[in-house]
From TrEMBL:
<feature type="transmembrane region" description="Helical">
    <location>
        <begin position="348"/>
        <end position="373"/>
    </location>
</feature>
<feature type="transmembrane region" description="Helical">
    <location>
        <begin position="66"/>
        <end position="86"/>
    </location>
</feature>
<keyword id="KW-0472">Membrane</keyword>
<feature type="compositionally biased region" description="Basic and acidic residues">
    <location>
        <begin position="10"/>
        <end position="20"/>
    </location>
</feature>
<feature type="compositionally biased region" description="Basic and acidic residues">
    <location>
        <begin position="549"/>
        <end position="558"/>
    </location>
</feature>
<dbReference type="InterPro" id="IPR005797">
    <property type="entry name" value="Cyt_b/b6_N"/>
</dbReference>
<feature type="transmembrane region" description="Helical">
    <location>
        <begin position="284"/>
        <end position="305"/>
    </location>
</feature>
<dbReference type="Pfam" id="PF13631">
    <property type="entry name" value="Cytochrom_B_N_2"/>
</dbReference>
<keyword id="KW-0812">Transmembrane</keyword>
<feature type="transmembrane region" description="Helical">
    <location>
        <begin position="162"/>
        <end position="182"/>
    </location>
</feature>
<feature type="transmembrane region" description="Helical">
    <location>
        <begin position="433"/>
        <end position="449"/>
    </location>
</feature>
<feature type="transmembrane region" description="Helical">
    <location>
        <begin position="129"/>
        <end position="150"/>
    </location>
</feature>
<protein>
    <recommendedName>
        <fullName>Cytochrome bc1 complex cytochrome b subunit</fullName>
        <ecNumber>7.1.1.8</ecNumber>
    </recommendedName>
</protein>
<feature type="transmembrane region" description="Helical">
    <location>
        <begin position="228"/>
        <end position="252"/>
    </location>
</feature>
<feature type="region of interest" description="Disordered">
    <location>
        <begin position="1"/>
        <end position="29"/>
    </location>
</feature>
<dbReference type="InterPro" id="IPR027387">
    <property type="entry name" value="Cytb/b6-like_sf"/>
</dbReference>
<feature type="domain" description="Cytochrome b/b6 N-terminal region profile">
    <location>
        <begin position="33"/>
        <end position="259"/>
    </location>
</feature>
């Protein structure tokens, strides 16, 4: 593997050959410390290697960074909160500075969170930053995941990183739920009450699970300290550990890159970590931190003093989870009542269990399995470092939008009561519409998205073959009118023709020459069907022959071969790609 720096104009000045100026005392001291450390740890070589690592530049790669920075913000502000938060359900009489609560018996957890908000200097801001960063963290993870999905960045060799990502995302939901439950206010207690109900819906062992978690009857005094250990110790340790593995794999595989001039499956075009990316990423951290602080300073979130302490006997109307739990809440509202029935003297509440206990693992399980399913269906065993343009993989893009639509229906369903009130509609009608929508809307979304992708591909073909419409009408000498078309420049054309032709798998007949059916015939048949579903509707990229023919007709001026594969549009660093596992 080699990494080389493209010489910049500055570095090619003639005076580069002058003898180097003697190092300043500061530089000498830094060099001395670095040498001392290297002698004892041997870290210079790996660090030097990492610092030269080339990262491609694209705005969408920032999404992973936003996730990383919001996680760091949660870790920093969370540590601040632990200095004052008391993880105890023990009852005390509140005597802090928030007058409406004076004299009310509350838990120590609740009282300490109100104290953080009103009596600890900067406490309210830090609490708000913690909560806003948590919300942003999960938004960023989700959008980052969509970027990875729609561009096919999960394909070989990045499947493991996709699976790690799925686990990270699921754990982030649990971490958020645990944090939300810590202040022990009316909302968080209602959330815990719901969680207790979910657990009890598991047949046979449900009540035992609940007793185990709450150390007896709900709410008990154990749940707050237990959630605290999970929230500040167990889950952050797992999240950070998995994240290190995640980013380590990004370094090992190197980053994917969007197709473009000079970018191939075997190189990485971009800037090195040091100094360009380090400066960019460092600056970007402060932008994310700054934006989070600004929102937190201006917009109240979770004003627990307004809700009051948790009281198991109080009925809370309008309790809402944080946004990322909305889909599970929606599923609970849509599952039909007949899924709850009595048999063998027991009540089975599958309507609750499916929505609350099974939905999340099933959803993440399917997501984690997708790269492997796609690989099986397409038979594509190759490594991919160049990303797909979403339009060039219409079925995958359609499936993604279909899944998002399903998620969206559940999310909207979680607000069916508010919609009914605000829009003056019947909640039952809304529920029926959402139930139907859960099955019908994703299919429509899949179909429409696929058609849009195919149309965009057709448009790309048209552009390549016939150039851009200029709007200039020319009249010929014999009186005919036609519109002038402008040929695309080579860079744009390259982007539109670089993708591969896709075809369904050609599968074996399923029987040998003696007519003996192979034991895997059924599986192969299914694979053939899915492969045909995946690739049946497709638009092939323009071939050099087609372009030459168009060129001959005077539509396009240059051939595809002339596309500037080995040039870049800006000064860039390039490093060659490696085979995972074969590079030191
Ligand atoms: C990335 C992971 C994290 C997420 C998503 C998260 C989320 C949350 C949320 C939503 C709350 C409720 C905030 C509120 O009161 O409005 C919370 C509370 C809390 N979190 Fe975290 N947190 C994370 C990491 C941490 C870490 C690493 C620590 C400690 C080292 C921590 C310590 C706390 C404490 C002490 C509270 C209770 C105080 C309070 O609610 O103000 N959190 N967390
Ligand atoms: C704690 C949550 C996460 C953090 C902090 C995180 C961070 C990052 C960062 C910084 C990168 C490199 C820059 C980029 O491509 O954006 C990256 C790449 C990647 N992430 Fe994540 N990620 C998280 C969750 C996820 C999830 C939920 C998935 C998918 C299910 C995922 C899949 C990937 C993949 C496949 C890559 C390699 C992409 C490529 O090379 O183009 N990540 N992640």
């Amino acid at each position: 593997m080699s990494t080389h720096t493209a010489p910049s104009a500055d570095r090619l000045r003639a005076d580069d050959h002058r003898p180097e100026a003697p190092a300043s005392p500061g530089a000498k001291a830094v060099g001395g410390v670095a040498g001392w450390l290297d002698d004892r740890t041997g870290a210079a070589k790996p660090i030097g290697y990492l610092m030269k690592k080339v990262f491609p530049d694209h705005w969408s790669f920032m999404l992973g960074e936003v996730a990383m920075y919001s996680m760091i913000i949660c870790l920093i502000t969370g540590t601040f909160l632990t200095f004052w938060y008391i993880p105890s359900a023990g009852q005390i009489v509140y005597d802090g500075s928030y007058l409406p609560l004076r004299g009310v018996t509350v838990s120590e957890a609740y009282a300490s969170t109100v104290d953080i908000s009103f009596d600890i200097r900067g406490g309210l801001l830090i609490r708000q930053i913690h909560h806003w960063a948590a919300l942003m963290f999960i938004v960023a993870i989700s959008v980052h995941m969509l970027r990875v999905f729609f561009t096919g960045a999960f394909r070989k060799p990045r499947e493991i990183n996709w699976v790690i990502g799925c686990i990270l995302s699921m754990l982030a939901l649990v971490e958020g739920f645990a944090g939300y439950s810590l202040p022990d206010d009316l909302l968080s207690g209602t959330g815990l009450r719901a969680a207790e109900g979910f657990m009890r819906s598991v047949p046979v062992v449900g009540s035992y699970l609940s007793y185990f978690l709450f150390d007896g009857a709900f709410p008990g005094e154990a749940i707050i300290p237990r959630l605290y250990s999970v929230h500040v110790l167990l889950l952050p340790a797992i999240l950070v550990g998995l994240f290190v593995a995640h980013i380590g794999l990004v370094f090992i595989h190197k980053h994917t890159q969007y197709p473009g001039p000079g970018k191939t499956n075997d190189n990485v075009v971009g800037f090195p970590v040091m100094p360009v990316y380090a400066a960019k990423a460092g600056g970007f951290f402060f932008i994310v931190f700054g934006a989070t602080v600004l929102i937190s300073a201006l917009v109240t979130i979770n004003p627990i003093w307004a809700y009051g302490p948790y009281d198991p006997s109080a009925v809370t109307a309008g309790a809402q989870p944080d946004w990322y739990m909305g889909f599970a809440d929606g599923a609970l509202r849509l599952l039909p009542g007949w899924l709850e029935f009595e048999a063998f003297g027991f009540t089975f509440s599958f309507n609750v269990m499916i929505g609350a206990i099974l939905l999340i693992p099933v959803m993440y399980g399917l997501m984690a399995a997708y790269p492997f399913l796609e690989r099986w269906v397409t038979g594509d065993e190759r490594e991919h470092h160049l990303l797909d343009r979403p339009r060039n993989n219409p079925t995958r893009t359609g499936l993604g939008v279909g899944a998002l639509t399903m998620y969206g229906v559940l999310m909207f369903a979680s607000a069916n009561d508010l919609m009914a009130i605000k829009l003056g509609l019947s909640i039952n009608d809304l529920t029926h519409i959402f139930r139907l929508g859960f099955f019908v809307f994703p299919v429509i979304a899949f179909w429409v998205t696929k058609r849009i992708c195919l149309s965009l591909q057709r448009r790309d073909r048209d552009l390549v073959l016939h150039g851009r419409e200029t709007g200039r009408i020319v009249r010929t000498a014999d009186g005919k009118f036609f519109e002038q078309h402008e040929p695309l420049d080579e860079y744009t054309r390259w982007l539109l023709v670089q993708h591969e032709k896709q075809e369904p798998l050609q599968l074996t007949a399923g029987a040998d020459e003696h007519g003996v059916v192979s034991p895997t015939a059924g599986k192969e048949k299914l694979r053939a069907k899915l492969s045909s579903f995946y690739f049946k509707d497709r638009i092939d990229p323009v071939t050099p022959a087609e372009l030459a023919a168009a060129h001959h007709d005077g539509h396009a001026l240059e051939s595809i071969e002339a596309a500037p594969q080995e040039e870049t549009s800006r000064p860039a660093l390039e490093s060659s790609r490696r085979e995972p596992g074969k590079r030191p």
